[in-house]
Design brief:
Layout (H helix, E strand, L loop, with lengths): L15 H23 L5 H6 L5 H29 L3 H20 L3 H14 L3 H10 L6 H30 L1 H19 L14 H8 L2 H31 L4 H29 L1 H21 L3 H27 L7 H30 L1 H23 L7
Helix pairs in contact: 1-7, 1-8, 3-5, 3-14, 4-5, 4-8, 6-7, 7-8, 7-11, 10-11, 10-12, 10-13, 10-14, 10-15, 11-12, 11-13, 12-13, 12-15, 14-15
């Protein structure tokens, strides 16, 4: 039986008021965390292009975010459990997010941009302990409410951040959004620091259990489909669409609105995923999301005007909003309760590979054949691999 004073590394308060205070402070921290990460995102690719005319290097810079969180997410979660402490990793990640936001506007060249974006990628590992600590502040029977709450907070933070990027660029140039992101990170640290933490009994990681999960088809196939979804999303919506929009003459405000439309569509997809899954089934919904994702990339490849880029962003966002929670749920659906935390850490760490590979590979291809042709190839590969994976997903349980 768990010690009631040792819940997820947070010293539980003897009063309801103290618990509400902890929830409030972590709510503020989560909101500011996502503001920090997304305040400069809508025009990041365009800003990187001011440092280099090589699209492959632009892709390398953008890919650092996914690469480093793919490397640290699972080990960070396991080390936090082993040490019995989570708050130091949360504070450290928030500090890194702020440092990365400062390094990038001061970068004299593309190499320094790579370093800055890599630092931000390391900070993304904070999300794992942050989710665990926040949900632990709620009773077990309110786990769904806690997860929905923290997801909504993050979505609101991202929407607000991306909606003002263009205005900030017009007001103070590209650097202003970066510096304000660093300020948001500092405020997030101040929000977290007053919340007490008491060390938990250390939990030694089980490498054998991790290895067993990796080879299970019912865990692996949804995760690989999530990799594909992240690949296309970070190659397009969070990657090179901004450069196409800039070449079409889009203003900074319009570039900012493009990503805001994407995130609004993600929210719609999130809200409708449960209802649609109950009617169509999870596999059919995943297949539909793959078609939407491929269609979004194809629209970019042939887009004659800026309006079509908004359509592409909406298709991409709707696909991601639907597929993300469904694939995440499928990856742990048949996993025993005792292994679900490890399985979720594995899922998040592996799908981050797509966040790295999407901009990295697309940058090389775009430099060789142009951005439209790259998106056309991406759309075809997404449709083919996605539907094959979905077909295999239907029989995954039988071989688990």
């Amino acid at each position: 039986m768990n010690d009631p004073q040792l819940v997820a590394g947070v010293a539980t308060a003897p009063t309801a008021g103290a618990r509400r205070r902890a929830i409030t402070l972590y709510t503020v921290a989560v909101f500011l965390y996502w503001v920090t990460l997304y305040l400069y995102m809508p025009t990041l690719a365009v800003y990187v292009e001011t440092k280099t005319d090589n699209l492959a290097m632009v892709g390398v810079v953008l890919s650092m975010y996914g690469l480093w969180q793919a490397l640290v997410r699972l080990p960070l979660g396991m080390v936090a459990d082993w040490m019995g402490r989570r708050k130091p990793f949360i504070v450290g990640g928030l500090v890194l997010a702020g440092v990365g936001a400062i390094v990038m506007p001061l970068a004299p060249n593309v190499e320094a941009m790579i370093v800055g974006r890599a630092i931000v990628g390391l900070s993304a590992g904070t999300w794992v302990p942050l989710v665990v600590v926040f949900t632990s502040l709620f009773p077990p029977e309110q786990a769904v409410r806690a997860s929905t709450t923290i997801t909504t907070i993050g979505t609101v933070g991202r929407l607000l951040a991306t909606s003002v990027t263009g205005w900030l660029n017009d007001l103070g140039g590209y650097s202003l959004a970066f510096y304000l992101a660093a300020v948001a990170a500092g405020l997030a640290v101040l929000a977290v620091l007053p919340v007490p933490e008491k060390r938990r009994p250390p939990a030694r990681p089980s490498w054998r259990a991790l290895g067993a999960l990796i080879v299970r088809r019912d865990v692996l196939l949804p995760t690989l489909l999530a990799v594909l979804s992240q690949y296309v999303t970070w190659a397009t919506a969070f990657g090179f669409i901004a450069i196409i929009a800039d070449r079409m003459g889009a203003t900074a405000v319009q570039q900012s609105l493009l990503l805001t439309v994407n995130l609004l569509a993600v929210t719609v997809g999130n809200l409708g995923a449960t209802t649609v899954t109950q009617r169509l089934g999870s596999k059919a919904l995943v297949a539909a999301s793959i078609v939407l994702l491929a269609a979004g990339a194809a629209v970019v490849a042939v887009a004659p005007s800026l309006a079509w880029l908004f359509v592409a962003h909406a298709l991409n966002g709707l696909s991601h909003g639907v597929s993300y929670p469904v694939l995440m749920g499928l990856s742990i659906r048949y996993v025993a309760d005792a292994e679900r935390t490890t399985a979720m850490g594995l899922h998040q760490a592996v799908y981050a590979i797509g966040m790295f590979a999407g901009p990295a590979i697309s940058g090389v291809l775009a430099d060789a054949m142009g951005i439209p042709a790259t998106f056309g190839l991406t759309a075809a590969a997404c449709l083919l691999l996605g539907l094959i994976g979905t077909r295999m997903l239907r029989s995954a349980r039988a071989d688990a």
